[in-house]
Design a protein that fits this description.
It is a single chain. The protein has 369 residues and is an alpha/beta fold. It has 2 domains: 184 residues, Rossmann fold (3-Layer(aba) Sandwich); 160 residues, Rossmann fold (3-Layer(aba) Sandwich). 44% of the residues lie in helices and 17% in strands. It has 16 helices and 13 strands. Strand 2, helix 3 and strand 3 form a beta-alpha-beta unit. The radius of gyration is 20 Å and the shape is globular.
Length: 369
């Protein structure tokens, strides 16, 4: 039997290295011929070092530009004709939509992973934006053999609006956590209480609410520190303006580590990991923190509520509510025993439901015709 081939198409090289390295390694181990495509961003060398070819694509990640999106669609169609893979797996919004359109004329089996609904469904004027997004998704998903969602509420939304069929879709428990790499570490003793946020510096992640909550927490626990770990994503409409970020840092509300290649040292230094997002697919930052036995505080929204068991592995609070968020953080910072017990329960939950090996097995089943 000839060697089967799979093409993984994501937003950019970073998303492939950050979230799909385990999938690539398993495919290679099983004898698949693997290639990747996405916007070049400096991380493509890490993919190529694994022996996986990478094709750069002209993806405009800053919004809806019809001319740029047509160029992207044309580049995808040309790649698919040239590569002729057996399976094409799309991740993130534009690859799913335009990749699905480009794949209509190929014999490849098309699999999608919708990693979250994003700005089109959470930003200003989201009614009109959501209607446009549903239309584009409906066209893009029409050629798919299977579409994965990372939480049941996102899938239910697509089923309700008849964007996808029930037999051609399912729910994955996230994209999987490498529970050996993200293993428990003791927090260094003697330092001030530390709250850590890991993710892009976006308004949709609830950072304005976190800033207000941080100021409330510091009034009760003056030594508390708040660390943001992640990049400013200028291509996202919800990016926090640099003036606002610098203002927070200058006033001592937040410290900012910027983008990092390895979040584990920062998670290890945390008493609590926080994610006050408006909506998620299934947040990797919370899962990685739980795998390292850190208590978490998050908003009670799709994605976060699938990860966090309220009062067992962490605390859930209403979205866009700085007061409730501050109360939850003060409670966890003031009771190290409670935070420690939640951290231990969190790791057990990750091992039982979100381990990378279990997720990859289900993904590979969807590759079979």
């Amino acid at each position: 039997m000839s060697q089967r081939s799979v093409l993984l198409v994501s937003r950019c090289a970073w998303t492939l290295t950050a979230f799909r390295t385990g999938l690539m390694r398993e495919l290679l181990t099983r004898g698949w011929r693997v290639s990747c495509a996405g916007a070049a961003d400096g991380y493509e060398g890490r993919i190529q070092a694994m022996g996986v070819p990478f094709t750069p694509l002209p993806l405009d990640m800053r919004g809806m530009n019809p001319a740029a999106d047509l160029r992207y669609l044309g580049a995808l169609a040309a790649l698919y004709r040239r590569a002729r893979p057996d399976v094409i797996h799309h991740f993130t919004i534009k690859p799913v939509i335009y990749g699905g359109m480009a794949a209509r004329l190929t014999p490849a089996r098309v699999v999608n992973t919708i990693t979250g609904l994003g700005y089109m469904f959470t930003g200003p004027d989201r009614g009109a934006r959501a209607m446009l997004a549903r239309t584009l998704y409906r066209v893009g998903l029409s050629s798919a053999s299977h579409t994965w969602f990372l939480n049941a509420e996102d899938r239910d939304y697509f089923l309700k609006h008849r964007v996808v069929g029930s037999e051609q879709s399912g729910v994955l428990p996230g994209e999987g956590v490498d529970s050996e790499r993200f293993s428990p570490r003791k927090r260094p003793s003697g330092g001030p209480p530390m709250v850590v946020y890991v993710g892009r510096i976006l308004g949709d992640k609830g950072l304005y609410e976190l800033a207000e909550a941080a100021e409330r927490v510091k009034r009760e626990i003056p030594r508390a520190r708040f660390l943001l770990v992640g990049p400013r994503d200028e291509r996202n409409p919800s990016v926090v303006p640099e003036t606002d970020l610098r203002g927070w840092v200058d006033r001592g509300v937040f410290e900012w580590a910027g983008p990092v290649d390895d979040v584990r040292p920062h998670l290890a230094g945390a008493d609590v990991v926080v994610l006050p997002s408006y909506r998620e697919g299934l947040p990797m930052s919370l899962l990685e923190a739980m795998a390292m036995e850190r208590a978490v505080a998050a908003t009670d929204v799709p994605g976060c509520r699938e990860v966090v068991e309220h009062e067992k592995t962490g605390l859930l609070v209403p979205p866009r509510n700085p007061r409730a968020l501050a109360q939850a953080l003060v409670r966890l910072l003031s009771d190290p025993g409670l935070a420690a017990s939640m951290g231990k329960a969190g790791r057990q939950r990750v091992l039982a439901h979100f381990d990378e090996k279990k997720v990859i097995r289900r993904v590979l089943e969807s590759y079979e015709a």
